Amino acid sequence: MTPGPQYFHRASQFPNGSLQISSLIPTDQGNFALMMLTAQGLAKVYIYLPVHEPVTKPVINSSSSQVLVNGNLTLTCVTVHAERILWRKDDNGLPSRVDFSPDNKTAIFHRINQWDAGQYQCEAENPISRSYSDVFTLTVSYRESYSGNRFISMAGIICGCIAGTALIIAAMVLLYKRYVLPLRDSQKDTHSVGRYTDRYSSTQGQSIDGREDPSMIYANVVNSDMGHMDLS
Q1: Where do the Ig-like domain residues begin and end (predicted)?
Q2: Is pLDDT above 50 for 200?
Q3: Average pLDDT for residues 107-113, to the nearest whole number?
């Protein structure tokens, strides 16, 4: 057997025509040709040698540090030398509504819900190795949505209270002007008349204050009536 032009020192030939390559490296990958001279002539055989490297430990990257209900999320399994990527959630497969990239390294979630929360893991493998990522715990939050709705509700309540208060004040002012003020003016006039103008006319046409004791009022008094009178 004669070594070919691309023979290298890590390759060893054996009398049976086999070839052994030690300490494989990525550049050893490729087509190898074996040529044999037989009674029928020259024969050539080609064989492809794949060289695989162990996969690196996968790492799950998330597109968002805070996942909210009804939001979107992308999980990416980052690894090298993997020929196949598998995903798991709580030791089961992912829901059918999750979309995947052609190489299966990226999982895309649309409209996250509470059922998407859990523990995720990706597996990377090739013909010679397999490796698993650390568990990625997905927590779904309601805080922003709830706070936003609460803010909107509170704003509506405050605006309603302000508008209601303004209407009540306006109604009270109108009622005060329409009913209370006229009533107060009427009571004031009546009190004034009762106190100051309740007078009576004497037989001489004189006005007499109604507050005076009627027993002290005398009509048609003349000069000859002057004198002391005993009122006891």
Answers
A1: 54-133
A2: no
A3: 94
Q: Residue written as tokens 């540090």?
A: 65
- Give just the sign of the alpha carbon dihedral 74, 77, 81, 86: negative
Measured CA to CA in angstroms, residue 153 lies from 142, 144, 146, 160 at distances of 16, 14, 10, 10
**Helix, strand, or coil (residue 231):** coil
Specify the 3-state DSSP secondary structure of 29.
Answer: coil
CB atoms closer than 10 angstroms to residue 54 = 13
8-state DSSP, 57: P
CA angle, 172 as apex, 170 and 174 as ends, to 5°?
70
| Rounded Cα gap, residues 117 and 95, in angstroms | 12
Residue given tokens 């509700």 in the structure block:
153
Q: What share of the chain is helix, strand, coil (3-state, %, to 5)?
A: 30, 30, 40
Termini Cα distance of the chain: 172
Please give the Cα distance from 182 to 14 (Å, whole number). Answer: 127
* 65 token code pair: 């540090």
H/E stretch holding 143 reads helix 143-175
DSSP 45-89: EEEEE----PPPPPEEEES-SSEETT--EEEEEE-SS-SEEEEEE
pLDDT for the residue 210: 47
The token pair at 135 is 């568990």
| pTM score, whole prediction | 0.54
Distance, in Å, from the CA atom of 165 to the CA atom of 145, rounded to the nearest integer, reads: 30
Answer for the pair 45, 34: CB distance below 8 angstroms, yes or no.
Answer: yes
Of 85, 76, 29, give the one whose Cα is nearest residue 55. Answer: 85
